Amino acid sequence: MTIAPVVLSGQAATRRRHKENTRSAGYTALGIVFLALMLFPVYWMINASLQPSGNTLTADIFPFNPSFAGYEKAIADQGGNLITSLLISLGTVVLSLVIAAPAAYALAQFRFRWINIALLAIIISQMIPGIVIANALYAAYNDLGLLNSIPGLILADASHAIPFAILILRAFMIGIPPSIVEAARVDGAGLVRAFISIVVPISRNSLITAGLFAFLFSWSDFLFALTLTTTEDVRPVTLGIYQYLGTQVANWSAVMATAVLSSIPAIVLLILAQKYIAAGATGGAVK
User: Fold this and answer.
1) pTM of whole model > 0.70?
2) In 27-44, which positions are buried (b, 16+ CB within 10 angstroms) versus exposed (e)?
3) What is the spatial distance between Cα 162 and Cα 100, in angstroms, rounded to a whole number?
4) 54: alpha, beta or left, given left = phi > 0 and alpha = psi -120 to 50?
5) Using 50, 70 and 90 to split pLDDT, how confident is the model at 10?
């Protein structure tokens, strides 16, 4: 008498699992389609950079006869600009973290009435259009002699990266127990020593996350590079690609090769730091 209900229950469970598997397969297929659509421009950029003719209009869907002439020309013409962008980005990361880390810790641990006002000012600073900042910096840089200089571009990019880094770091540091720092103070460490020896190692994930975003901000910057450089002495790769288009309209393989080369540092950093990014971005929410 109890066999039929058991059989029906098993059949219902089987149908439910089959429906769930079908739904999961449908979502997977849809995700693959969306991923293919989003990555197709990247694929076409790589494909065009390997075309021997250098013309994207007559390029094959697959580079059957790849040519690296575009990369040779890109390295010869834009290699210096890539190094310039790398120096500016690394300098922006260092300057941003040196300023943002202690500022974020102060905003996270100190209890003053002006803290909320400071946070509001930081958020508002993120809303200011970049062209406004660039125009203001141009006048100041012209008087200070910082136009067409790597330190000048580092300062400009850091002004954009520091507020965002403070917000990320504060979200994590607000969860650091004050007792840990107090224990270090009891053992004789000063404020600076306690911050460097205790707070910084604990905040590693959020520091890597903030540093990566600062690097990407600087690496992809075009507005400050266009406004604050007037000669070819200092030229980031973003500005180099922009000005490269006018001289290489008949040889798109060199332009696309430059774009591929400029994408490699960001891709490598994102792959290497993805676990730290996930931990740093969610650290403040789970503390």
Assistant:
1) yes
2) eeeeeeeeeeeeeeeeee
3) 6
4) left
5) low
